[in-house]
Every structure is written in C-alpha cells, then in structure tokens.
Amino acid sequence: MTFEQFLIWAQDPGIAVVVGVVVSIAAEYVPQFGALERKWKLPVILAVNVGVPLAAAGVAIVMGYQSGGFDATYWPALVAGVAAFVGGQGNWVRAEIIKLKMLRS
Question: What is the average per-residue pLDDT within 57-84?
Fold first, then answer.
C-alpha cells in the first residue's frame, strides 16, 4: 500500500483501524485518558473519529493526491467519521445490553 492509498483508505474504510490504534495508544500511554469518565471519553473519541479522515483528506490535498473540493473530499470524510463513531457506540450499547442480560440470568 502506498502512502496515497493509505490516505484514501484512512478517509473511509480504514477509519476503524486507525482510530482503534490511536485510542489504544492513548489508553496505554496517556494515563489521563484512562481516568476520564465515559461522558468525557465520548467527545474525545468523536473528535478522533472525525479528525482521522479529515486529517487524511487534508494531507492528501496538500500532497496533491486529491482535489480540494469540500463536496468531493471533506464531506465524505466527515460523514464517514461520524458513521464510524455512531457504529462504534452502537456496538458498545449492544455489548452492555448483553452483559445486563447475562447478569440477570
């Protein structure tokens, strides 16, 4: 995978992988992140989910791999980032429901 392919990949299908790596590193090496309450972790994770594809789009534009049009570059990256966040939170809620059901039985 070339750097150009990586930047395109990080704007949509690779968001979950890149965000997972960033959050894992933060959880491991930034003690303050682990100490945060869930209500404060959510905005941080949202910022990372949206920031990763937007940053990848910005770098791709600066390096000349993509055009700088908002509709063609930033909007799809923003939508993909929000979708990744919503999907991740949906999985968390599902896991919590399963835990509750297991505790009740």
Answer: 86
Do 81 and 15 form a contact (C-beta atoms < 8 A)? Answer: yes
Residue 4, CB-side half-sphere exposure with 13 Å CA sphere: 7
Q: What average pLDDT does the structure give for the chain?
A: 85
Name the burial class of residue 7, with classes exposed (0-12), middle (13-18) and buried (19+) by CB atoms within 10 angstroms of its CB: buried
Question: pLDDT value at position 73?
Answer: 83
- CB neighbours of 62 closer than 8 A, spacing ≥ 6? none
Alpha-carbon distances of 4 from 12, 15, 45, 80, rounded to whole Å: 13, 15, 25, 18
* pLDDT value, residue 59: 92
